[in-house]
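Sample entry as discussed:
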Amino acid sequence: MKSHGFDFTLAMRHLCEDITSRLPVLRHIDLSRVAISLCQTRKNVSHGIYASLTPLRFEAGAKTTQRRGRRYRVEPVIDETGREYLYILSFYLPRFMTTSLEEKLSTVVHELWHIGPKFDGDLRRHDGRCYAHGPSQNAYDAQMDRMAQAWLALDPPSQLYDFLMGDCKELIAENGQIIGSHWPNPRLVPERRKWRA
């Protein structure tokens, strides 16, 4: 029976589940509350964004924030059971697949590391102005490379990451097409005012 295509987001979910189970610093992550999204880049070029993590809560896990005197919330992102996701982890194809295996794994760890240690829908925040990556982007990237290599050193099953060995053309040649879930970034919606009689 011929395959309907390679499910990229399912394969990425299995990979992320293994990474978060093996690396103690990522064990706070519950992948069932993380939507994994496949995004298509307009141009097949190597520069630009490879992956992103969208938090679905505000600072300290708050459900609302105030801007210009008005209170807003994030439009809920719901799974098939009716449970709310706390994050969207997005991969941009074909761009993400143009890098080496090591770079891909480091990118995956990089985005997972952004998930706050309280797993409350907020990002991991560093001290200072550059709260997302800390004072040095180079030091941050080097730390992600080490974590990805630490995961590989634990000898996970190669079938978890075989799909990252090549690029999109190779995946399509082997499977006919690449499929997966797409979750658009939710909108900020104003809170309804509660009127008192």
